[in-house]
Amino acid sequence: MNKRIILTAAFLGAVAVILGAFGAHGLKKLVDAPAIDTWTKGVEYQFYHVFALLYLSTFARYRNKLVNIAYFCFTFGIVFFSGSLYLLATRSLTNIGFAGVLGPITPIGGLLFIFGWIMLFFAALKDK
């Protein structure tokens, strides 16, 4: 198992729990229902990819470049995809006009997720 991958997954998992709780209890009173749905989608995808990172750590013993690429894709996918959704969901609170900038960042995060899954697929094929 790869310590770096597990530490990243543990940290991002804890952050997902905190952000999920904040969305369910604190944020619900501050933003509208569509913003809560956006926030929730960010938390969901963060959790999915935390579990993907944990699974990925089981391949790390093979020192495979595909594992490293998948690690970076999942990690930065969480930052770009979920992070941009968190910012978009709270834009009415922050009053920052970054929606035009964040619009393209969310799909980049999604593409990173897809590429990470493809790398995991090929890492599994390469596994003996």
Automatic annotation (TrEMBL):
Membrane topology: Multi-pass membrane protein
Biological classification of the source: Bacteria, Pseudomonadati, Bacteroidota, Sphingobacteriia, Sphingobacteriales
Signal peptide from the UniProt entry: none
Source species: Pedobacter yulinensis
Primary localisation category: membrane
Annotated protein name in UniProt: DUF423 domain-containing protein
PANTHER family the UniProt entry points to: TRANSMEMBRANE PROTEIN 256
Compartments, as annotated in UniProt: Membrane
A Pfam cross-reference name: DUF423
Keywords: Membrane, Transmembrane, Transmembrane helix
Membrane-spanning segments: 47-62, 69-89, 101-125
Similarity-based family: Belongs to the UPF0382 family.
One GO cellular component term: plasma membrane
